[in-house]
User: What shape does this take?
Amino acid sequence: MNKIVVNNANLRKLMEGNKRYMASHLIHPDQSSERRFELKHGQHPFAIILGCSDSRVPPEVIFDQGLGDLYVVRVVGNVLDQMIVASIEYAVLHLDVRLIMVMGHSQCGAVQATCNHNQLEGHLPSLTFALNAALNKAKDLPGDLTENVILANVGLVSEELKQTGAHFPEMMKKGELVIVPAYYHIDTGKVELLT
Ligand SMILES: [Zn+2]
Assistant: This one.
């Protein structure tokens, strides 16, 4: 993973922003009216973040980025479905974004709810369905079940994206696309890259 960090300028830019955030040395880049004006002709974000809808994990804040920098897809439990894959494919294939980060986080309430086997209301059983593979992978592991499911889900979602995104396998083979699993620690603000 260190090799990717060293060689990937976009990932380095993300992680440097996260370091500033952790140290409370935010520079709030690209948030001026000039930047807004500059973007009226189009967007060229340098990274895609697939993250959870949790109010404590807003990518622009935790990576200290601004307008037009990040293409963000947020959904409870950072799971995948067809529209989410389509959203990511749009950014890769039409906006030429070459880095995808799949970011889970500590204390994910959505995963917790699924692990507790609560009778879930409304459309929430579809979340359980989306997390089922991670739940199966993690259920016999030692340690905290919720944390294990969060980690398993990030890995499985990254793998699924690698395999199912249109043109993603060949792009990755040619080094034109990088998909990075990551885990955000709510208490410290650190984004940890997972291998
Ligand atoms: Zn969450």
In short: The longest strand covers residues 99-105. The mean pLDDT is 94.
